[in-house]
Structure formats: structure tokens, C-alpha cells
Specification:
Its EC number is 3.5.1.28. It is an enzyme of class 3 (hydrolase). Keywords: Hydrolase, Signal. This protein is of the alpha/beta class. The chain has two domains: 125 residues, Immunoglobulin-like (Sandwich); 226 residues, Zn-dependent exopeptidases (Aminopeptidase), CATH 3.40.630. 27% of the residues lie in helices and 27% in strands. Strands 11-10-12-15-13-14 form a six-stranded mixed beta sheet, with helices on both faces. A five-stranded mixed beta sheet has the order 5-1-2-9-8, with no helix packed on it. It has a four-stranded antiparallel beta sheet with strand order 3-4-7-6. Strand 10, helix 2 and strand 11 form a beta-alpha-beta unit. The longest helix has 25 residues. The chain is elongated and about 70 Å long.
């Protein structure tokens, strides 16, 4: 068997630092280059300090995963333009203390050599990865040999509740800023702003607006630029016993003339092709980050859970209608603004959930509004009205 020179991820296994100790500064990746062909490819990344790393493989499609300690990527986008064996390269944070590089390969690929070298001038280190094309049998062997679940060891998969325990009688709302960390989301057509920053800015404004309402406790599933898997987002909402889950997005479309807000609820069958395509893209969030998709729990077989899902779905539809009603005549909506599809992030069986596209980064007029703090404030206030209206109806009906 070919040996792989892979450094042990010692930094990720260190004991927790003493209380009050300063957190180590993130590594800085300040340069990169890639060269090669469809048989062999070399990737070099330059760091300010010596990086510890580990390498793993994911199938369907084949990907090479390089896990790193927390890293700030100060790279020019063109320095890691995919070529050779790789047709997509993504990098970014995976949560506190960890970052990741995901190399999507055109076919079965193996890292045949990996090492960290110090620069000749002593001012930094280079991570050198040599990859080669292999057959499917060898790739299957690599997958079988590794003991890896897709998580980063520095990040707890059972993420703790990140907000105080719910006050008695409070109406709790989880506001989920879509994307984050390695998953940048859509890119603005004018400013090249990443969707993950747009959704977080809006989510923060919405939480602040909701928390000014009597009896409401709103919180963020993520409050910084970090990656959360789709199941984690749902789990956080359920940990807080959320009464509502609102996931914020600002996608792109090929049809750049389409603009306006859209509200989505979950359904086994998509309402239209636009909804189906959007759900398919959003459901790839975990795959983009190199997280193997887990099989869904067999809850549907349980008649009680199935009934809960039906009731929750009805409440979700009522929330969506309330949002559309609040937006009408106040902000731009697309045609048929309430649509539905199989969004994985909306699958909590007991939490009414909507996915709100506040606009499209592919439309220049929408993009300008999405970056306008005053517009975000206006939309947040309209959403708060919709939530209060929904809340009154839900309480009246025992929801």
C-alpha cells in the first residue's frame, strides 16, 4: 500500500486551555498555487505558522478533505482556480477552532504525498499536497480504511444551547442565517458580496427587532461567520424549544430579471421548477463543506411523528401566508410568493418552519436593497408584524 505522509492533527487534540487563557490567533494562509493535469496535480498553500492537518476522502462525488486548525484565508481567488484533477476548490471555517479545504475531484483521486516545509527564509511554511488519479477500487479502499465521520474534531457535533433557557410563557423564535464559514452561498452580481454575510446581517437585524416585541425571545442559530450543517441548525432550534424557525437566504438565479422576496415551506413535492432547483442547491450545503450526508431517521414510520409533521406543516403554511400578507404592497414579491419544496433545513417535525428568500443576489436592484441597512430594518419590522399576527392565531388554535 502506498504510504501517505500526513501530519498528525496534534493541535486539534490538545487539552482545553485554562480558563482565562488567550485563544491562539488563527493561522494565516497568505498564498497558494496549483499546477498539474488530469493525471497528477500539486497544490501548495503558504502559512505564517506551521499548520497541523489531516486528510480524508468523501465519495459521491469524490472529494479530498483537508482539515486545518482555525485559519484566516487571505488568498486571491485566482490563486486556487480549479485545474488538473480538481474541478472545484472551496475553503473556509468549520466552526470555532477549525477550518477546511474541500477539493472536488473529477474522478477517484488520492493524495500520494503531503508534507509541511519551512520556507528557506524562515518566514513561514508551505503545505504541499501531491494528488494522483486512481481507480475506483483503490478509492473504495481509502474510504474503507479511514475512521472519519465527516466532523472536525475541534467542533462539537452535539453543539450546546447557545442562548439562555426559555422564560416561562415566552414565544421562542430561531432565526437561521443561511450558509456560513466554508459555505459562502451565492455571490452578488455587482459587489461580489457573499450571501453568508448578507444573511447574517439581516438575521441580526431581525432578532433585534423581534426581541423588542413583548413576550418574544428570538435568537440566532449562528452569530458569526461559521459553518453549521443543516441537521445542526434544526437541532439548535429544537434544543431551545423554538416555537418558530425562520431560515434567511438570498440566492441567485440564472434569470437575472427575477427579483423580490419568496417564502418557502416544506413539501414532498415542489410547487414548481424554481422551488425544486432552489431546494436542490440549498440541500447541497453540507456536501459543499465536505460533510457526508447522513441517512434520515426513520421517523416517518411512526404514526405519531407523522401526525405531528402534518400539524407542524399546517402551522408553517399559516406563517408563510402571514409573511406574504405583511409584505404585500410594502416590499417587492415574486409571482406566487409562497412556494414549497423539500428543504432539509425545514425538516423539524415539531417546529413550524419557513425559508425566506429576502431577495436575489443575481438581480442588481435586489442586491442594492439587500446591502441597505434601512431596507433590512423595514423588512424586519414587517416580519415582526407577521410573526405577531401568526402568534395570535396559533395561540388561539392551541399552537
Amino acid at each position: 500500500m502506498r504510504a501517505i505522509a500526513v501530519a498528525v492533527v496534534a493541535a486539534l487534540a490538545l487539552p482545553i486551555a485554562a480558563v482565562g487563557a488567550a485563544e491562539p490567533a488563527p493561522l494565516l494562509a497568505f498564498g497558494a498555487r496549483i499546477a498539474g493535469d488530469d493525471a497528477r496535480t500539486r497544490l501548495v498553500i503558504e502559512f505564517d505558522r506551521k499548520p497541523e492537518f489531516s486528510i480524508h476522502y468523501v465519495a459521491n462525488p469524490p472529494r479530498v478533505i483537508v482539515d486545518l486548525p482555525e485559519t484566516s484565508f487571505g488568498l486571491k481567488p485566482e490563486s486556487l482556480e480549479p485545474r488538473g484533477l480538481f474541478d472545484a476548490i472551496r475553503y473556509g471555517g468549520m466552526g470555532a477552532g477549525a477550518s477546511r479545504l474541500v477539493l472536488s475531484a473529477k474522478g477517484p483521486t488520492e493524495v500520494t504525498h503531503a508534507e509541511v516545509k519551512s520556507e528557506e527564509d524562515g518566514k513561514g511554511f508551505r503545505l504541499v499536497l501531491d494528488a494522483a488519479r486512481i481507480d475506483q477500487a483503490r478509492f473504495d479502499e481509502l474510504l474503507g480504511e479511514q475512521r472519519w465521520t465527516g466532523t472536525v474534531r475541534a467542533v462539537k457535533t452535539d453543539r450546546p444551547v447557545i442562548a439562555p433557557v426559555k422564560k416561562p410563557g415566552a414565544f421562542v423564535i430561531a432565526v437561521d442565517a443561511g450558509h456560513g464559514g466554508i459555505d459562502t452561498g451565492a455571490i452578488g452580481s455587482l459587489t461580489k458580496t457573499e450571501e453568508k454575510h448578507v444573511t447574517l446581517a439581516f438575521a441580526k437585524e431581525l432578532v433585534a427587532t423581534l426581541n423588542r416585541q413583548s413576550g418574544i425571545e428570538a435568537f440566532l442559530t449562528r452569530d458569526q461567520d461559521q459553518f453549521l450543517s443543516l441537521p445542526q441548525r434544526v437541532q439548535i432550534a429544537r434544543q431551545r424549544s423554538a416555537n418558530l424557525f425562520i431560515s434567511i437566504h438570498a440566492d441567485t438565479l440564472k434569470q437575472k430579471d427575477i427579483r423580490g422576496a419568496t417564502v418557502y415551506t416544506i413539501s414532498d413535492k415542489a410547487s414548481d421548477n424554481l422551488a425544486a432547483d432552489l431546494a436542490a442547491r440549498e440541500n447541497l450545503s453540507d456536501e459543499i463543506a465536505g460533510v457526508p450526508l447522513e441517512s434520515e431517521p426513520a421517523e416517518v414510520a411512526d404514526i405519531l411523528i407523522d401526525l405531528t409533521r402534518r400539524e407542524t406543516q399546517a402551522f408553517s403554511v399559516n406563517l408563510a401566508r402571514s409573511v406574504v400578507s405583511s409584505f404585500e404592497g410594502q416590499i417587492k414579491l415574486i409571482n406566487n410568493p409562497h412556494r414549497h419544496a423539500g428543504f432539509r433545513v425545514l425538516q423539524a417535525p415539531d417546529v413550524p418552519s419557513i425559508l425566506l428568500e429576502i431577495g436575489f443576489m443575481s438581480n442588481k436592484d435586489d442586491e442594492k436593497q439587500l446591502l441597505d441597512p434601512e431596507w433590512r430594518k423595514k423588512v424586519s419590522e414587517l416580519l415582526a408584524v407577521a410573526v405577531q399576527r401568526y402568534r395570535q392565531t396559533a395561540v388561539a388554535n392551541g399552537g
